[in-house]
Amino acid sequence: MTDQSFIDPHVLRGMDSMPVRTTNLNTLDMEKVAAHIERAVARGRYSGPMAPQEYLLRKQCIVEVDSAIYATLAGIMCFGRDTQAIFPRAVIDIGHYRGVDPVSFEVFHLEKDIGGTLFDQLARVETYLWTNTHHGMTLSDSSFQRVEIHEYPRAVIRELCVNVLAHRDYTNFRSAARVQMFRNRIEWISPGGLPPGVTVENILFEQAARNPQILSILYEAGYVEAFGQGLDTVVAVLSHEGMTPPQFHDTGASFIVTVFGRPIDVFSGEGIYARLNDSQRKILAIIRTRSETAPREILDLLEDRARRSVQRDIKGLVEANLIYAVGEGRALRYRLKEPNGA
What we know:
Radius of gyration: 24 Å
Number of helices: 11
Structural class: alpha+beta
CATH class of the largest domain: Alpha Beta
Low-confidence stretches: 1-12
Strand content: 15-25%
Largest sheet: 6 strands, mixed
Oligomer: single chain
Helix content: 25-40%
């Protein structure tokens, strides 16, 4: 059995609760802390000390070392008076492109170095994504009732905005977090690869919070519903709404989550999408994630549907001018018809 008296408490802390030696208590805004405590209590997500300084000590937003009080990364990112004065690259960039590639001549909107606290950054990015994606109405599959439909579910946007900021590696002093919007997808890019022991293959089963105190504070603020379930929520919501599963990619230097939106036909007002069956919607989603798709790939991904039914579904999409064929025989592929007819 380990003798607890020999364990250095600093070793047990996450990176976000280590002291930043150039700071002190005045680095943090006590009014922000008091307002957060009040809202957290009202939500039923906090029941500890109400005094701001006691709260900060409890949440390891400040720590005492040799009789001196220092702010930590968690405290600065959540309650700092001037966060970027201490962590200049603790910011997030938005790149919005008209096409499907991050090239300069396709830039629709570029917003760099969005700063402030994590709450400021989350509010700005979530608002931009929600405002600049498509929203509309369609008919439910089981009745003639009209239901709201969104290019990207709001829960997915929020969870991934939280993920890109809460789990980023803040020891990387050179890179900003990024969100890139394209015509067919959104990418959330977080500096720092996955933590040791976590891979793209096991990410939904392993929990290794890089910044546990930040996550705890975001939970109190209502941005996180349950610890370790952010990506699980994204997968579940996309599956429930019949959308393409998210794609995860770890470069070692960054972690990227890609989500493909619903086809723009949903929001065209022509009613085309409302007349499609579930299989046809899945086929469109499959083709949207690739430059072109072979019939065999579609059949393999829709293995529960009869071959002739899938063939009829594809024929209907071609006749609706939503996809088109290139090549013949074994070289036959299907591509998405662009809105401009290209």
